[in-house]
Amino acid sequence: MSREEIKKAACCFCFANCAVLVHIKDGVVTKVEGNKENALSRGHVCERVAYAAKWLYHPEHLTHPLKRIGQRGEGKWQRITWDQALNEIALKLTDIKAKYGAESLVFAEGTYRGSPFWPRSRFASLFGNPQNITHPGISCMLNCNSMQMALIGGIFMVPALSHTNCLVLWGQNPADTSSRMMGSINRRREKGGFKMIVIDPRRTKVAEMADIWLQLRPGTDGALALAWLNVIINEGLYDKEFVERWTFGFDKLAERVQEYPPERTAEITGLSVNNIIDSARMFATTKPAVLVRGLATDQIGRNSIRVEQARVALRAITGNLDNDGGNLITGVGPEIQGKRFIRESHLELLDKITPAVKERQLGFDKYKLMSWAGYNLTSPNFQRVYGEPESSMHRLGITPALIWKAILTGKPYPVKAMITWGSNPLMWAANTQATYEAFKSPNLELHVVGEYWLTSTAELADYVLPVASWLEKPLCSTFEDFSEVVFGGERSIPPVGERRDEYAIWRDLGTRMGQAEYWPWKTYEEVIESQIKPLGVTYEQLINMGFIKSDSRPFRGYEQRGFPTATGKVELYSTVLEKLGYDPLPFYEEPAESPVSTPELTGEYPLILNTGGHFMPFFHSEYRHLGIGMRERHPDPIADIHPETAAKLNIDQGDWMWIETRRGKIKQRARLNEGILPNVVNVQASWWFPEKSGAEPSLHGLWESNANVLTANNEESLDPLTGGWYARALLCKVYKA
Length: 737
Ligand SMILES: Nc1nc2c(c(=O)[nH]1)N[C@H]1C(S)=C(S)[C@@H](COP(=O)(O)OP(=O)(O)OC[C@H]3O[C@@H](n4cnc5c(=O)[nH]c(N)nc54)[C@H](O)[C@@H]3O)O[C@H]1N2
Ligand SMILES: Nc1nc2c(c(=O)[nH]1)N[C@H]1C(S)=C(S)[C@@H](COP(=O)(O)OP(=O)(O)OC[C@H]3O[C@@H](n4cnc5c(=O)[nH]c(N)nc54)[C@H](O)[C@@H]3O)O[C@H]1N2
Ligand code: SF4
Ligand SMILES: [Mo]
Description:
By secondary structure, the protein is α/β, with parallel strands linked by helices. It folds into four domains: 4-56, Single Sheet (N-terminal domain of TfIIb); 66-144 and 344-468 and 496-523, 3-Layer(aba) Sandwich (Rossmann fold), CATH 3.40.50.740; 156-329 and 556-580, Dimethylsulfoxide Reductase, domain 2 (3-Layer(aba) Sandwich), CATH 3.40.228; 599-736, Barwin-like endoglucanases (Beta Barrel). A seven-stranded mixed β-sheet has the order 5-4-19-18-17-6-7, covered by helices on one side. The protein has a six-stranded mixed β-barrel with strand order 24-28-25-27-26-29. Strands 11-10-9-13 form a four-stranded parallel β-sheet. A hairpin with a 4-residue loop joins strand 26 and strand 27 (665-672). The chain is globular. It starts with a strand and ends with a strand.
């Protein structure tokens, strides 16, 4: 007789963690659908869940540990046991640590997809490593969050919008990137009286809905934000009471923004003076207003988080902080009757890392806002106000260029081992050639990759470990400690083949390296039980509810406890930046390559290049294997180009075209788009071709259409505060292929 069951899980095909019901027949996943009983996601799912079973059981989805035989990149692999894999890795790590020190190991991580980060962090702390970790967050959200932590001691989250009267979408395209937010926008619009301002060089669905669409030159957002401040301050449109009581350094900010009258910003951005003034007034006078940061401005290198610095000031001086319908600020996870959930920051064991070890972190004194130097300034305030450690995931990250340099040159010290987890740096990091050279270097004596697939990055590794997916492991998450809500989901089926969840893997590796006493919980389920126990909730209850929220969540929490900053206020003039030796006030800087900063390049590279603009159904480089169903619907990479520009270049709709920068060239198909500025080209990121050979030189078509072949990682182009790089606002040329 066949056995059917339904499990309550949370989808991790992207980071929205929609509650789902997983249908299982005789132990095999057959279907996934939205769970209508979940009060947060209310049955919402996107198209991706329809492909879940094909994805889970795809013949190339890894099921066993692999060890490289032959040279890196030869594509020759041998199946080995977990015991052999972990024993050999532990032995090698021990040897490298003895010879070169614990800091010679680095970690690379990827975007949050439901997996906890603390097991890796705990392992690193116990290994004696200064948390030498790199990840795309340095140019995606975490750089922005590190600025927010410095200025307000917290992180913004997007509200449900039901009480919002003005929404600013700044470099974000939720129609393609956040179906949940798009649902909130549509619901709010139906009620009427809702203003929208969209800032995007490209006409998107939300730009079409907007009351004001600001189509600015890519990378000039900082000038716009400062002009809004100029208008709002000079016209007296700010919240005087809030400014007086809750901000530090308003006068200095007011003086600085005099450098950015709308006329100057109009020249820089290409916007009209009226549009700049009208949008500033609309934002300041329609309350409550929420100003949502998109990815775009995190990816504009040198000026990136200065944009966020100005936006924090905009949210604050208009009195839109932590108010109903405004910019909510996260605290420290749910609290029930004064008892708290045990966040990931508690499990990291950061206190095991001595100050001397922290100073050995790569980039410690270089990109200081995302190194221990910055963390050491913000975390005491966090601890003072919340009585909790600040999570390292918010705050630490080393720009990849420093790691590649340490591997290749041994400076400032040798990096000999790397563990890459849920991450495909050959796809995400700027300047693929640089990443490739580091991965090929014999100086890198050990490279372990934890993955679902043999990606281009995995093809250059020494060991590839098969990791259990969200259908094969439970979820208990506060989104890397960003959220006040805990999301839960159960393990739908036992791991397929020999896949293992990350807790099990790090525990087994740690145990082999003398860390046994620090890994007391036998399974990840046991850890989860201990995390939710203080709340008086059992594992079964978490699964049934799907999430846990605080029993009360008052708005304007700062009125009770102050802001977790040195001054207890919103720091419009940042004491953290001042102590770190940076300008404490926001300013505008031209992109490293632009018609203004490098006019000498525009002869050869006349167009502005944007990469990214994420799109459905893919999530970064995932789901591109033939046989799942998504790639069949979207087989080729697509670049947007204005019809007039295309006509001049003799390029038609659907033609393959070369896009070339000073770093290299790639091929994508042309999509003629009247909604893009005539001097801008937008290429899709994260393209590889799993069906092509994994051996060199192809590495699954790594070099053919991958946007990061075009991007730069030279020091002059990186943000001096975080090391963030440019994935937008570079210069390129385009021609027919
Ligand atoms: N389908 C899908 N959804 C995703 C992802 C995915 O891979 N696929 N990835 C997820 C992740 S990790 C992230 S970070 C988010 C990103 O999602 P979003 O924050 O929405 O960012 P993007 O889609 O990269 O770009 C948004 C817009 O920025 C515009 N833009 C380009 N340059 C500039 C500029 O200089 N200034 C301004 N103001 N705008 C500019 C682009 O035209 C684009 O329309 O999406 C998440 N959701
Ligand atoms: N040029 C350019 N570059 C970009 C961007 C851009 O817009 N333009 N976008 C940037 C952004 S916003 C981001 S967030 C990054 C994305 O960077 P990443 O999030 O690192 O994304 P991927 O490169 O797709 O690599 C993720 C890998 O993790 C694997 N994986 C997924 N889930 C798990 C898991 O639970 N455990 C393990 N062990 N593995 C898992 C997947 O199979 C996949 O191969 O790219 C960045 N790079
Ligand atoms: S939006 Fe789609 S992919 Fe993301 S969690 Fe929800 S169902 Fe899964
Ligand atoms: Mo991202």
